[in-house]
Amino acid sequence: METEGLVKIHEYQAKALFARYQVPVPRGEVAETSAQARAAAERLGGGTVVVKSQIHAGGRGKGTFRDRVSGAPVMHPDGSKPLGGVNVVRGPDEAERFAARMLGNVLVTRQSGPDGREVRRVLVEEGMDIRHEYYLALLLDRAVRAPVFIASAEGGTEIEEVAASRPEAILKQVVDPRSGYSPWIGRRLGFGLGLPAQEAQAFAKLCAGLYDTFVGTDASLVEINPLVRLADGRILALDGKMSFDDNALFRHPELRELRDLAEEDPLEVEASSHGLNYIKLDGNVGCMVNGAGLAMGTMDIIQHHGGRPANFLDVGGGATTEMVTEAFRIILGDPAVRAVLINIFGGIMRCDIVAEGVVAASRAVGVKVPVVVRLEGTNVERGREILVSSGLDFQVADGMRDAAEKVVAAASGR
Ligand code: GDP
Ligand code: MN
Question: Whole-model pTM?
Answer without folding.
Answer: 0.77
